[in-house]
Amino acid sequence: MPLERLQAARQKTVGTKQTLKAVEKGQAKLVFIAQDADPQVVDPLMKMCEQKAVPVITVESMQMLGLACNIKVGSASAGIVNET
């Protein structure tokens, strides 16, 4: 399951602003986006991922993504910066 990679990641970003910055800097290896996230929030991130050739995995819900990031609220997006 892809979310297990996110949970096990040594360094990750949580939230769209933080994830977008990591993608812009070329630090993000993989990005997760919740299907129920507001398109206005995640569209700029998706476009940046496309430009930088960063793979994107869609996740069922913001709640699931938040749980995978060990936070108590939902998250529209998250990213893996360092897996080891």
Automatic annotation (TrEMBL):
Keyword DNA damage applies: no
Alphabetic keyword roster: Ribonucleoprotein, Ribosomal protein
The protein's name in its UniProt record: Large subunit ribosomal protein L7A
Superkingdom field: Bacteria
Gene Ontology CC annotations of this record: ribosome
Residues covered by the Ribosomal protein eL8/eL30/eS12/Gadd45 domain: 6-83
Classification via InterPro entries: Ribosomal_eL30-like_sf, Ribosomal_eL8/eL30/eS12/Gad45
Gene3D superfamilies: 3.30.1330.30
Keyword Ribosomal protein: yes
